[in-house]
Design brief:
globular, single chain, five-stranded parallel β-sheet, about 10% strand, 14 helices, about 400 residues, Rossmann fold, alpha/beta
C-alpha cells in the first residue's frame, strides 16, 4: 500500500498549515531558486577550520564542490552495489546539504558519531571514500582510524550512537575541554541520526542524560521524512525539533536542503556546546530522494509526485543557481568540478574492485584496545578450526585498506 507524505487535516491542525514544508520556524538562508534571504537569528559567516573568516563566494564554491563529489560517491557506490561489488549501500541522495553543512561547521577537535549514511560528513572529516566502500564490501570492520579523523565508525544499530556521543561528550567535560574560553581547545560532539531513530529508546535516553549533565552534544537529525517505509506523520504528532523542549534543551528546525542555513545553525549549536551551555537538537528538514538502502524499493510506499516535487528543491541545484546568477563561479569552474567528480568515480570503481579479501582471522583484530581472555580463546579456537582445512583453501593474511591505522 502506498502512502502520501501529505498530512491529513488533523495533522495540519497540529503542525500548522505551513509545517508540511518546514513551517514559519524553518531557518532558511538560500531559497530553492538560489536567492539569498535574511534570517533574524542566523547568518552565513564562513570560517576555516581554525575559526578564521573566509570570503563568502570562495566558501560557497567549496560547499558546491563538496556536495557534487559527495553525490558522486553515492551514485558510484550505488552502481557498484548493483554490479555485485558491494553487499549493500545506504544512499544519501538529496541529503547532501544537510551533511556538508554540518560537516563543514565542525572544528578539528570536535567529534562525530555517525549512522551508516553520513558519507558527506565523512568526506568533510577527511575519510577516504574507499574506506567507506571497504566496509560495505565486507573486507574490513571500517577501514579508518576514528582518532585520526575524530569521526567514529559507522553505527548499524539504529540510534545507539546517540548514547555513545553523549557519553563521549560527558567525558570531554571531565577532561576539561569544555567552557574554558580557549577556542583551539574547547570541543563538542555531534550525534547524527534520522527521523526513524528518533523513536528509539537509545536516542531518548541520550536526550535525558545530555540534559541532566548539560553535555556538550549536538543531536543532528536528518528528517528525510521516511523511516524506511514509515512516513513522518506516523512517528510524531508534533515537529521533531519541538521534542527537545520536553527534555529541557532547545530545538531548532533548519531547511536541510539549504547548505548555508545548515552550516550556520550547526555552527551556532556547536559553539553553544563548546561554551558549556549544553545540548541542542537540530532537525534538518530534508527528503530522501533515493532508496533507504539498495535493498529497498521506495516505489512500493511513496508517490512519484512527492519525489518530483522535492527534486525542485535539489540542494546542489540551488547553490549552482546562486553561484551562476551572481557571477560567483564561471562555467569553467563547474566543468572542473564535474571532471573532478568523474576522476573520483573512476578511482572508486577501480579501487573497490582491487580490494583484497581479508584473512578469516582478521575479524578478531581491532575489536578491543586490550584483548580480553574470552576473545583470545575464541581466536585460538577459530585458528585451530581453520587448520583442519587444506591450507590452499584458506585465504592468506593481507593488509586490508586502512585497517589498523
Amino acid at each position: 500500500m502506498s502512502h502520501s507524505t501529505d498530512f491529513g487535516p488533523d495533522l495540519v491542525e497540529v503542525f500548522g498549515p505551513s509545517q508540511v514544508d518546514g513551517g514559519p520556524e524553518l531557518v532558511q538562508l538560500l531559497t530553492p531558486e538560489g536567492e539569498r534571504v535574511e534570517h533574524p537569528e542566523f547568518r552565513y559567516e564562513p570560517t576555516d577550520s581554525d575559526g578564521k573568516p573566509i570570503a563568502e563566494d570562495e566558501a560557497i564554491r567549496g560547499l558546491y564542490r563538496d556536495m557534487v563529489l559527495t553525490r558522486r560517491i553515492d551514485t558510484e557506490s550505488t552502481a557498484l552495489q548493483r554490479h555485485g561489488e558491494l553487499g549493500i549501500w545506504a544512499q544519501l541522495l538529496g541529503q547532501e546539504a544537510a551533511q556538508i553543512g554540518a560537516g563543514r561547521a565542525l572544528r578539528p577537535q570536535d567529534y562525530v558519531f555517525p549512522t551508516y549514511r553520513e558519507h558527506g560528513v565523512a568526506w568533510c572529516r577527511g575519510v577516504d571514500p574507499l574506506n567507506l566502500l571497504s566496509l560495505f564490501r565486507g573486507v574490513d570492520h571500517g577501514g579508518w582510524d576514528p582518532s585520526a579523523h575524530n569521526f567514529g565508525l559507522y553505527t548499524i544499530v539504529i540510534g545507539a550512537q546517540a548514547l555513545h556521543a553523549t557519553g563521549y561528550a560527558m567525558g570531554m567535560q571531565r577532561d576539561g575541554v569544555v567552557g574554558t574560553g580557549d577556542e583551539a581547545r574547547d570541543a563538542a560532539v555531534v550525534a547524527h541520526f534520522g527521523d526513524g531513530a528518533s523513536s528509539q529508546g537509545d536516542v531518548n535516553e541520550a536526550f535525558i542524560f545530555a540534559a541532566s549533565y548539560n553535555a556538550p552534544v549536538v543531536f543532528f537529525c536528518q528528517n528525510n521524512q521516511w523511516a524506511i517505509s514509515e512516513p513522518i506523520e506516523r512517528q510524531s504528532r508534533i515537529p521533531l525539533y519541538q521534542r527537545a523542549l520536553g527534555f529541557g534543551f532547545p530545538g531548532i528546525r533548519v531547511d536541510g536542503n539549504d547548505v548555508l542555513a545548515t552550516y550556520a545553525v550547526t555552527k551556532a549549536a556547536l559553539q553553544r556546546a563548546r561554551e558549556g551551555q549544553g545540548p541542542t537538537f537540530v532537525e534538518a528538514y530534508t527528503y530522501r530522494m533515493g532508496a533507504h538502502t539498495t535493498t529497498d524499493d521506495p516505489t512500493r510506499y511513496r508517490l512519484d509526485h512527492d519525489v518530483e516535487r522535492w527534486k525542485l528543491r535539489d540542494p546542489i541545484a540551488r547553490v549552482k543557481a546562486y553561484l551562476a546568477r551572481n557571477g560567483a563561479a564561471s562555467e569553467s569552474f563547474f566543468a572542473k568540478v564535474a571532471n573532478e567528480a568523474d576522476e573520483l568515480g573512476h578511482r572508486l570503481r577501480e579501487g573497490c574492485k582491487a580490494m583484497p579479501d581479508p584473512s578469516p582471522m582478521a575479524m578478531f583484530d581491532q575489536v578491543y584496545a586490550e584483548e580480553p581472555p574470552e576473545l583470545a580463546a575464541q581466536r585460538e579456537g577459530f585458528a585451530a578450526y581453520l587448520e583442519t582445512f587444506d591450507s590452499s583453501s584458506v585465504v592468506e593474511p593481507v593488509e586490508t585498506q586502512g585497517a589498523g591505522r
